[in-house]
Design brief:
By secondary structure, the protein is mainly alpha-helical. It has one domain. It is built from seven helices and no strands. The mean pLDDT is about 90.
């Protein structure tokens, strides 16, 4: 009964999971605007390092997702799917150390983005809430995988942790790294990260543009690049055959 309820709530969360990052970014920007600080220490150098560490955490999460997506098998659930999809059970590469590597990346990425608000409390809350949300989503997906792959999934789940990666047992990926798949699935994560930096900085300045516009020019450039990539995927053949 407990597992069924977790899977049911996980399915509901699965269908709206694409909105999570937008919510994290917007709330973080509001916190930055209200507080006007870049870190929790109240000292310029320490707060600057807080921003560096926060950006590093967010980048680690985003880059980990790039690795996972590049080695993933075809026919798996993408961002646009409304239900779990799996043409095969992938147990190699990142999936040999944790059953839900993409969600590990999201949790770390979201935590770093929340920390960019300058609030350690918000960072901690986003981390805890993300763990709870993706734990439930993983229940839903693994219920699906259990029905699809039966004994093979059971044996894999017994040996591999759900969200806390183990440090040993890496198995060489079954597939070669596919850059087009990684770009197709993950380019938006870097756009969202720069969006968070842009909105947080603008909020701290009470929406007054600074003299040094470097960050803002970078945001404009990444926005154009993200738009071109999206159009290339929609109207061109750059991402044909990729799911």
């Amino acid at each position: 009964m407990y597992h069924q309820e977790m899977a049911r709530s996980g399915h509901a969360l699965f269908t709206i999971r694409g909105l999570n990052i937008a919510v994290v970014i917007v709330i973080g920007a509001v916190i930055a605007w209200c507080s006007g600080v870049s870190g929790p220490f109240g000292e310029a150098v320490a707060d600057c390092w807080w921003q560096v560490v926060s950006l590093g955490v967010a980048l680690v999460g985003a880059l980990w997702r790039v690795i996972v997506s590049g080695f993933a098998a075809l026919g798996t659930s993408g961002n646009a799917k409304k239900g779990a999809v799996a043409a095969e059970l992938n147990t190699t590469g990142p999936y040999s150390v944790v059953r839900n590597p993409l969600y590990v990346g999201r949790i770390v990425n979201f935590t770093g983005i929340a920390m960019l608000s300058g609030s350690w409390v918000y960072g901690a809350l986003v981390f805890l809430i993300s763990v709870l949300v993706y734990e439930r989503i993983s229940f839903y997906e693994e219920e699906f995988l259990s029905k699809e792959f039966g004994e093979a999934h059971r044996k894999w789940a017994e040996e591999i942790p759900a969200l806390l990666p183990k440090l040993t047992g890496w198995v060489k990926p079954k597939y070669d790294f596919w850059w087009r798949r990684a770009i197709y699935r993950e380019y938006q994560k870097f756009f969202f990260l720069l969006t968070a930096l842009f909105l947080n900085d603008l909020g701290r300045r009470n929406f007054v543009l600074p003299e040094d516009m470097t960050l803002y020019y970078a945001f404009g450039g990444i926005t154009v690049l993200a738009l071109v990539t999206r159009l290339a995927g929609k109207f061109g053949k750059l991402f044909d055959g990729i799911s």
